[in-house]
Design goal:
The structure holds two protein chains of two kinds. Chain A is of the alpha+beta class. Chain A is 52% helix and 20% strand. Chain A has two domains: 168 residues, no CATH class; 166 residues, no CATH class. Chain B has a six-stranded mixed beta sheet. A four-stranded antiparallel beta sheet of chain B has the order 2-1-4-5, covered by helices on one side. The chains are: A alpha+beta, B alpha/beta.
């Protein structure tokens, strides 16, 4: 680093702290928001992804698991079982709904993604039961542990909707969608509780004898059964993510852009004011024979070092603070990826380059003759 | 060995006009001046007489409107900015009225900053060379001091060390004693005089201060942009 750049930068410690702080805040905000988005993205798609099914079967207009806007005839189960490539076919009844604890006010509701499954086949059932009994019996429900943590729902509690209720008999993991959690019941309980037509199902999940043929089988079955969609698990998980996060993403992008502008503004203003204050000294350097490119390098190096320090502080804050926030607020699910950190480093570099742009233009206009005045 | 007749600066019929039309102001008019090695030329005159304009043209900071300028035999009249910067870097040393040291740099850093490879002749590292000059000017104890910790006299001696350390042939001093008391002013001029003779530098000192006369080889009077020998 050039001597003048280093000395000027570290001579004004308060200004340096403001500049580094501004960039660090920006990096921290971008880092947290990006990690939050990654965390949510991981979380909301994980149930669909973790169900060990090769294909999800839904009606043609269905978009995703969360909306569960699919209706299929129950007899489709037999038809699917007769396809030679299928191994297990399991029906699901899925509905998003609001429930409350029987001991709480009826208006004190929370979201539940009710999943009715066939305990004999288990496919689509609770992913990991961590406490209580499984499978659930008639009128019983296994809730996700996140529901227990967030809404104080315990084993033995009754969850109420209208004049019907389900008794909590266990906790499972892997069904947390942040804004809602899955609750597993048997197919019959789901039909009864939702007053769902006995001849209808929401989805079918199926495994194949040869999972490597999944695309081929999906295409073939779609031809055989018009009006029915056959979707690979990871694709269905992505559709679910898009459904839930599609509305959040533009907001996150706007807030991240604002954070970028805040960092850029603070760094740009402090570097600009430093350049203006030192313009006489830059004039001296010009008079002494230093060229504009040398002076640009001085400002550019100051900007890059400020950016690098801001990035290090901001990235460290993101990595250190985010997990604490997650402990304090369960919905604050973060997932810090190294690729995102590299991306933020790139954004900080851009910030530093832009922050140096106006001061550099200012340098070009400094007339060295002015150093003879006063 | 000194080379007293070496031409360091030659101005031929130099005029400088700022602005154009009715608002134009002529700062210098048909100025012819030459400075040789080992010579100290004092330029005196009232405020607004064109002294600073003359200094900046001689120092390759400003181009004349009319006339020609040669520094060490190189015609710089029509040079582009990057070549003028190279002339300033290699051939010209400045000593300013307000010292113009960089505030964040120590004395030795201020001096070593302007020493280029050519000036250090590849023999001595710039910092060592700067220390040698500070020592020569009696400032070795201030080598690591920041300008704000130094007296005005010390600052001006650092500025002279900076001008000499870059091994420039032409030294241009703008009111070098204006901010100093008479004792410090005398010391600074004595030093400048001594080093100019010793190192065969051409020196122009622009000043209102009549006390600089005793150190000058020639005294020129500048008034209303025109120059004449002072009796």
């Amino acid at each position: 680093m050039l001597l003048v750049a280093r000395k000027n930068l570290f001579a004004e410690k308060t200004r340096l702290a403001i500049s580094v702080g501004g960039i660090a805040l920006s990096v921290f905000l971008i880092g947290v928001l990006l990690s939050l988005f990654r965390g949510w993205s991981e979380q909301v798609g994980s149930f669909v992804e973790d169900v060990p099914a090769d294909l999800w079967v839904a009606s043609d207009r269905a978009t995703d698991f969360a909306a569960a806007g699919s209706l299929l005839p129950a007899f489709l189960e037999g038809a699917l079982e007769r396809v030679p490539e299928t191994d297990i076919v399991s029906p699901l009844i899925v509905r998003p709904l609001e429930m409350s604890k029987s001991t709480d006010d009826r208006d004190d509701t929370f979201d539940v993604q009710l999943v009715g499954y066939d305990p004999k086949k288990a496919l689509g059932g609770p992913l990991r039961v961590v406490e209580g009994k499984s499978p659930p019996g008639p009128g019983e429900i296994i809730i996700d542990k996140a529901m227990h943590d967030r809404f104080d729902v315990d084993i033995g509690d009754r969850l109420v909707r209208g004049n019907k209720s389900l008794t909590v008999v266990g906790y499972s993991e892997g069904g947390d969608f942040i804004y809602t959690q899955v609750g597993h019941v048997t197919l019959d309980t789901a039909s009864d509780f939702l007053e769902f037509d006995q001849q209808l199902r929401t989805f079918f999940v199926l495994t194949l004898k040869d999972p490597s043929q999944v695309d081929l089988v999906a295409k073939r079955m779609a031809l055989l059964l018009p009006g029915v969609k056959f979707i690979p698990g990871d694709e269905f998980a992505d559709d679910t993510r898009d459904r839930i996060l599609g509305n959040v993403l533009p907001i996150l992008i706007v807030v991240m852009a604002l954070a970028f502008i805040v960092g850029l503004s603070v760094a740009g203003l402090t570097i600009y004011t430093a350049t203006v204050e030192k313009s006489r000294e830059y004039g001296i350097l010009k008079a002494e024979g230093f060229t504009n490119p040398f002076l640009y390098r001085v400002v550019f190096e100051q900007s890059i070092v400020t950016g690098a320090l801001g990035f290090l502080v901001g990235a460290a804050l993101t990595v250190l603070v985010a997990p604490f926030a997650q402990n304090a607020v369960p919905q604050f699910v973060v997932f810090v990826r190294w690729q995102d950190i590299v991306g933020i480093a790139g954004a900080t570099l851009l910030m530093s380059i832009f922050a140096a742009y106006i001061p550099i233009r200012r340098l070009a206009s400094i007339d060295p003759v002015t150093v003879f005045k006063g | 060995m000194s080379e007293p007749q070496r031409s360091i600066l030659k101005l031929e019929g130099v005029s400088k006009t700022y602005g154009s039309g009715e608002l134009s102001v002529t700062a210098l008019e048909n100025v012819t001046l030459s400075v040789n090695g080992g010579e100290i030329v004092a330029i005196m005159g009232p405020s607004g007489s064109g002294k600073t304009t003359l200094l900046t043209i001689a120092g390759a900071l400003l181009r004349p409107t009319v006339g020609s300028v040669e520094v060490c035999g190189i015609d710089i009249t029509k040079m582009g900015e990057s070549k003028l910067a190279a002339i300033r870097r290699d051939k010209v040393g400045f000593v300013y009225q307000s010292f113009n040291l960089l505030a964040a740099l120590t004395a030795v850093e201020n001096v070593s900053l302007v020493i280029h490879k050519r000036a250090s002749n590849g023999r001595t590292p710039p910092t060592d060379r700067a220390l040698e000059w500070l020592d020569t000017l009696g400032l070795s104890h201030r080598a690591n001091s920041l300008p704000k910790k130094m007296s005005d006299g010390e600052k001006q001696r650092v500025a002279i060390a900076r001008a000499l350390a870059k091994d420039a042939d032409l030294i241009l001093a703008d009111e070098p004693t204006a901010n100093l008391d008479s004792k410090r002013g005398h010391e600074v001029m004595q030093l400048l005089h001594q080093k100019a003779i010793e190192l065969n530098k051409g020196v122009i000192v622009v000043s209102h201060d009549a006390r600089i006369r005793q150190f000058a080889s020639r005294i020129l009077w500048l008034e209303d942009g025109t120059i004449r020998e002072h009796e």
